[in-house]
């Protein structure tokens, strides 16, 4: 597949992912009558299910990375060039921002927002490290053993991680930056973003080292 189509697939897939994350958060909040647990449950199920479908749609075109942390690992594994990785990352960031704007437009929200939802404390950063470690481990481990099951495995992992991590598992720098632009249920205050991204990148790199060792072929 040529690079322009792959970049377009990454942008469109990430756009739809953010529309799902933010839109389902808004819908959940409106229907839950102040019950955050129900709102989070709706947000979780929509995101996990949407991910499975989006990876099936865009996987054959671009690999359906939708995530600069995943792209970083693919580049470090020498499965794409630096120029391709930068192009993917730019497309993911642009798509993420447009997805937030699309969600706002669908629900009649103010288009331009800045989140006031602080997600502070080292526990949040650790949660993002764990969430991203598990995501990369899921991708590497499942694609090594049963590649065709990877979309479902990623969706299931994120569904689980929404609930077992203190941060509700952003696990994606593009998602994190874009969610700083929505003052809705899914938002994150800009001041909280650096810690989240630091945790995500650390988790991705640790996962690469750990699963690179676990999955290495034994010498003949």
Automatic annotation (TrEMBL):
<dbReference type="InterPro" id="IPR000425">
    <property type="entry name" value="MIP"/>
</dbReference>
<feature type="transmembrane region" description="Helical">
    <location>
        <begin position="154"/>
        <end position="175"/>
    </location>
</feature>
<dbReference type="InterPro" id="IPR023271">
    <property type="entry name" value="Aquaporin-like"/>
</dbReference>
<keyword id="KW-1133">Transmembrane helix</keyword>
<dbReference type="Pfam" id="PF00230">
    <property type="entry name" value="MIP"/>
</dbReference>
<dbReference type="InterPro" id="IPR034294">
    <property type="entry name" value="Aquaporin_transptr"/>
</dbReference>
<comment type="similarity">
    <text>Belongs to the MIP/aquaporin (TC 1.A.8) family.</text>
</comment>
<keyword id="KW-0813">Transport</keyword>
<keyword id="KW-0812">Transmembrane</keyword>
<dbReference type="GO" id="GO:0015250">
    <property type="term" value="F:water channel activity"/>
</dbReference>
<feature type="transmembrane region" description="Helical">
    <location>
        <begin position="122"/>
        <end position="142"/>
    </location>
</feature>
<keyword id="KW-0472">Membrane</keyword>
<feature type="transmembrane region" description="Helical">
    <location>
        <begin position="195"/>
        <end position="216"/>
    </location>
</feature>
<dbReference type="GO" id="GO:0005886">
    <property type="term" value="C:plasma membrane"/>
</dbReference>
<feature type="transmembrane region" description="Helical">
    <location>
        <begin position="85"/>
        <end position="107"/>
    </location>
</feature>
<protein>
    <submittedName>
        <fullName>MIP family protein</fullName>
    </submittedName>
</protein>
<feature type="transmembrane region" description="Helical">
    <location>
        <begin position="50"/>
        <end position="76"/>
    </location>
</feature>
């Amino acid at each position: 597949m040529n690079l322009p189509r792959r970049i377009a697939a990454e942008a469109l897939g990430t756009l739809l992912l953010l529309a799902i994350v933010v839109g389902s958060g808004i819908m959940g909040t409106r229907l839950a009558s102040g019950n955050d647990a129900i709102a989070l449950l709706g947000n979780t199920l929509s995101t996990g299910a949407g991910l499975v479908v989006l990876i099936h749609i865009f996987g054959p075109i671009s690999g359906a990375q939708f995530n600069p942390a995943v792209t970083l690992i693919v580049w470090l594994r020498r499965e794409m060039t630096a120029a391709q990785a930068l192009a993917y990352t730019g497309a993911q960031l642009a798509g993420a921002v447009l997805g937030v704007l699309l969600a706002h437009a669908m629900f009649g929200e103010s288009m331009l927002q800045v989140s006031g939802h602080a997600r502070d404390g080292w526990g949040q950063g650790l949660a993002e490290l764990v969430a991203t470690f598990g995501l990369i481990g899921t991708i590497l481990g499942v694609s090594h053993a049963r590649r065709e099951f990877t979309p479902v495995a990623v969706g299931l992992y994120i569904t689980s991680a929404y609930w077992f991590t203190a941060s509700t598992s952003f696990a994606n720098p593009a998602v994190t930056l874009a969610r700083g632009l929505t003052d809705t249920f899914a938002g994150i205050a800009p001041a909280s973003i650096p810690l989240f991204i630091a945790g995500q990148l650390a988790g991705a790199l640790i996962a690469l080292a750990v699963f690179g060792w676990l999955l290495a072929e034994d010498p003949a």
